[in-house]
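Quick note —
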Amino acid sequence: MTFRPGTNPDDAQTVLKTTRDSILNNPEISERTRQALANPRLRQQFADLGQDIPPPQRQTIEALAAFQKAEIEKWQPLMKLAKQKTD
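Predicted structure written out below.
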């Protein structure tokens, strides 16, 4: 998988910004992605890279948005103290 120059592939916001709504909201793509993420071999490959795959109920755009919101709320005060910009 390749990402645009200047983006961080670990940043979920990057994925959302660079992915079209027609892909994100496509039920067939979502289902096939969940099926792929259930594959033990793929799960092991991600684990070998130090990546955790969330449980199926958290593999939705809504769950990702809720997670991002919670993370922003959690870390934003510290970022402000450190005078770091948050988007």
